[in-house]
Amino acid sequence: MATLDAIREALPEPARDIKLNLQAVLQPGTLTPAQRWGVAVATAAAARNERLLAAVLADARAEVEPAVVEDALAAAAVMAMNNVYYRFRHMVGKASYAEKPARLRMNRLVKPAASKVDFELFALAVSAVNGCETCVRSHEQVVVAGGLSEDQVHEAVRIAAVLHAAAVSLELAGYAAVPSAAAAAG
Fold first, then answer.
1. 33-47 and 66-92 helices, crossing angle to 10°
2. How many Å apart are CA 185 and CA 79, to the nearest integer?
3. Among the options 41, 132, 157, 159, which is catalytic?
């Protein structure tokens, strides 16, 4: 995790908790390395911070097969589309929209390069970051039915939460050095 260590060091003091959590959530736990790093890659991509994504990709590529990284990136891309679409349908709450076919291609969801259950876990984590209740519920059911435990789901969402917070914190790093209005006036 040498590259992520550099990210942790770049986080500003207000993100001290995120520094500590970033180190902790990527340690071995209930998830396999492929699951842990796939979730990290997918959620770093969903967080849209190039620096974080580059660091996570570098560390992940040293730990897992290329197919896992490819699936994680594909999950982030597919869920960027699906989370908007299904969140809209859920928020509007009209049966007429729910009856309309999505007509959105999602072939990778059906035929991932590596593990189907892992791909669904990556999609679940991205959906949590993107706030799509419908997708979170759907993917959670699939991964549990596929043999993952609630502890594994919980661990994946913890990783997603911390990676998202790290992306936000990296953005804050640029503002931490900016003097406040009160300090500038004084």
1. 50
2. 46
3. 132
Residues near 93 by Cβ (< 8 Å), separated by ≥ 6? none
Residue 135 annotated in active site:
yes
* Tokens, residue 148: 């993952």
152-172: burial string, b at 16+ Cβ within 10 Å, e else: bbebbbbbbbbbbbbbebbee
Among 47, 68, 135, 143, the one annotated catalytic: 135
Is the CATH number of domain 2-177 3.40.1280.10? Answer: no
Q: Per residue of the chain (186 residues), what is the pLDDT tens digit?
A: 679 999 999 999 999 999 999 999 999 999 999 999 999 999 999 999 999 999 999 999 999 999 999 999 999 999 999 999 999 999 999 999 999 999 999 999 889 999 999 999 999 999 999 999 999 999 999 999 999 999 999 999 999 999 999 999 999 877 756 555 555 555
All structural domains of the chain with their residue ranges: 2-177
